[in-house]
Amino acid sequence: MAAIKLNIHIQPDANPDNVARTLSLLASDPDLDFPTYKELLEALAEKGIGSRIELPSTASSMGILAKADGAIRLSPDGRALARIREEVRGDLLHFLIYSGWDAHHPLDFLQSWGYRNCCDRYWSDGDIQLTTTYLDRQVEETINEAREAFTSMNVGEFDEISFSRKSLTGAHKWLLALQPQVLHPNSPDAKDRTFRRRDFCPPELVVLALAWVLRDETTVTGVDILLTREKRETLCKACLLSPEALDRVLDWAIPTFPSLISPGTRAGSYGRFVRLHKIPAVEDVIR
After folding, report:
1. Which residue, 80, 92, 175, 271, has fewest beta-carbon neighbours within 10 Å?
2. Residue 220 has pLDDT above 70, yes or no
3. pLDDT reported for residue 189
4. pLDDT category of residue 191 using cuts at 50, 70 and 90
5. What is the mean pLDDT of the chain?
6. How does DSSP assign the chain, residue by residue?
């Protein structure tokens, strides 16, 4: 069997701007669909949105596009995302690419693995200046971490890992779409940006991210969930949030989405409890 190419590269040509513009185009006409990705790509190129296959491929892997009955159109999540408040759309697009990789299907949506690794690294390092030296070292260490991680998952032989400084350009485009920002200065052509954990994130993001953090729990809804130190850290990483700000963000999210989340019935020295009333989908956080 031939060795596989481990492509954890984050595509700069598939980014929040052109994914959002693709959403807007397809949402403008509920009956709009395309028989093939080639025809969709031609329509996107005609509108000046993008001309590379990475754009619809990434949107499909994020669950924004779906193919059904021989046609490509917006998925239910895609239609919901088109109706989300514009100021939080970047955060939800971040969530979809961050959470898209699944250890049960380790060779699917590999750029999500690369993006999550990037976000988790920045969060763990804290307040960091993204100098040339730092980014060059990040590329080397990411490749080494990928080799170790995927070897341990027994995915088969691979002789090449695709990840470079261009991959970090792709990752930074998703991070630049977040509000509040995490990259400073927040401009596309900035040099030597600084990453900082943020003190707030939209309640839409924290509710979806909480359900993702609990994805491997046997019972999630209708029971008290203890936010252990590990769960809190994983949630803060997904939201790129300062740990000190998490409780304040949850306090904002609970009255914002009372049908989805409420305080737990218990409290005490073990930590904070919360309850999810359902596993939220993107449509559940439209307001």
Report:
1. 271
2. yes
3. 72
4. confident
5. 94
6. -PPEEEE----TTS-HHHHHHHHHHHHT-TT--BSSHHHHHHHHHHTTS--STHHHHHHHHTTSEEEETTEEEE-HHHHHHHHS-HHHHHHHHHHHHHS---TTSTTSSHHHHHHHHHHHHHHHH-SEE--HHHHHHHHHHHHHHHHHHHHHTT---EEEEE--HHHHHHHHHHHHT-SS-SEES--TT-SS-EE--BS---HHHHHHHHHHHTTT-S--BTS-EE--HHHHHHHHHHHTB-GGGHHHHHHHHHHHSTTTEEE-S--STT--EEEESS---GGGG--
Positive or negative, the CA dihedral 263, 259, 212, 244 is negative
Give me the long-range contacts of 142-147 (CB less than 8 A, separation at least 24): 142/8, 142/114, 142/117, 142/118, 142/167, 145/117, 146/6, 146/8, 146/113, 146/114, 146/117, 147/6
Average pLDDT on 73-96 reads 96
Burial status of residue 222 (CB atoms within 10 A of its CB: 0-12, 13-18, 19 or more): exposed
- Residue pLDDT, tens place only, 40-61: 999 999 999 999 999 999 999 9
> For residue 13, what are its two tokens?
């040509």
